[in-house]
């Protein structure tokens, strides 16, 4: 039995560590690399942004208090720009309001320095898993959108009616066509959307609605 091909470099997770303390930054990089996780370090959020956020999966490990743009400000900036990289925060001066703000904004974890190695590794594993799930969901939504783009205008109208839970007779009445014609369009929709069952078609309608 052939072994699966190893993931390409562009698909391997990359953890970006941002901390202005060189000792802490290098310790985090050493820890991550010791368990086979690719990692890069930056002294500031500006350095991170200047290097650019590649399309590689992974996560960010951010110190809350950084020179220039803080970790929390960067979190807000990335969210506004649509970047969904999961974030783990570290702080030596954390307080409850700060951690609540970070977690409400979607942070994976909020760790207080000195961070236990296992706590960091657990948080990074959770962040990478979350990123993988998000990427798979976006890819699935893009695939469904591409399939939907092949539908004719009338097929899309029938699809929308099915997604709303209408019967063929109701869809026919709404569109001013015969029930037999609805059935023909519905069959085309099932085929073009690669839906094996009605439940699968409804699920794909939900993915389209979420991406709208």
From TrEMBL:
The keyword Transcription regulation appears for this protein: yes
Superkingdom per UniProt: Bacteria
Keyword Ion transport (UniProt): no
Keywords on record: DNA-binding, Phosphoprotein, Transcription, Transcription regulation
Domain Response regulatory, residue spans: 14-128
Matching CDD domains: LuxR_C_like, REC_FixJ
4-aspartylphosphate: residues carrying this PTM: 63
A Pfam family that the UniProt record links to this protein: GerE
Gene3D superfamilies in UniProt: 3.40.50.2300, Winged helix-like DNA-binding domain superfamily/Winged helix DNA-binding domain
Domain HTH luxR-type as annotated: residue spans: 144-209
Protein name per its UniProtKB record: Response regulator transcription factor
Top-level taxonomy: Bacteria, Pseudomonadati, Pseudomonadota, Alphaproteobacteria, Acetobacterales
